[in-house]
Amino acid sequence: QVQLVESGGGLVQAGGSLRLSCAASGRTFSIGIMYWFRQAPGKEREFVASIRWSGGNTDYADSAKGRFTISKDNAKKTMYLQMNSLKPEDTAVYYCNKDGAYWGQGTQVTVSS
């Protein structure tokens, strides 16, 4: 089994920053791609960013480009999402995902205007 634990969410004013973390444990001997998704109230879960564990190739949703940065620490098996210039529309529960198969419990991000 794989366990993913997100942390770093909170309440921040518009224009502020947050750094989310996702720590992986369990059967993590092979990681292909790690993802960040988010789900706002009343909306479907949507892709935010991804990073290939080997090589570090990244991809971003248009809404995240230029403001969010995804990164990883291989030794710690931890993924990060640095979020800058936050907007109220970034308010959501943020989830990490491993290889499209495993989900964390999510961390709440609330951006006040």
Structure description:
This protein is an all-beta fold and 113 residues long. Helix content is 0%, strand content 56%. It is built from no helices and eleven strands. It has strands spanning 2-7, 10-13, 18-26, 33-39, 46-52, 58-60, 68-73, 78-83, 92-98, 102-103, 107-112. The strands form two sheets. Strands 2, 4, 5, 6, 9, 10 and 11 form a seven-stranded mixed β-sheet that branches. Strands 1-3-8-7 form a four-stranded antiparallel β-sheet, with no helix packed on it. The radius of gyration is 13 Å and the shape is globular. It starts with a strand and ends with a strand. The mean pLDDT is 96.
What's this, in brief?
This protein has 113 residues and is mainly beta.
The pLDDT mean sits at 96
Helix count from the secondary structure assignment: 0
State the helicity in percent bands.
under 10%
Determine the structural class based on helices, strands and strand pairing: mainly beta
Distance linking N and C termini: 40 Å
**Low-pLDDT residue spans:** none
Order of secondary-structure elements: EEEEEEEEEEE
Please tally the β strands and state the result: 11
Q: Which radius of gyration do the C-alpha atoms yield?
A: 13 Å
Shape: globular
Name the beta content range: over 45%
Major sheet details: 7 strands, mixed
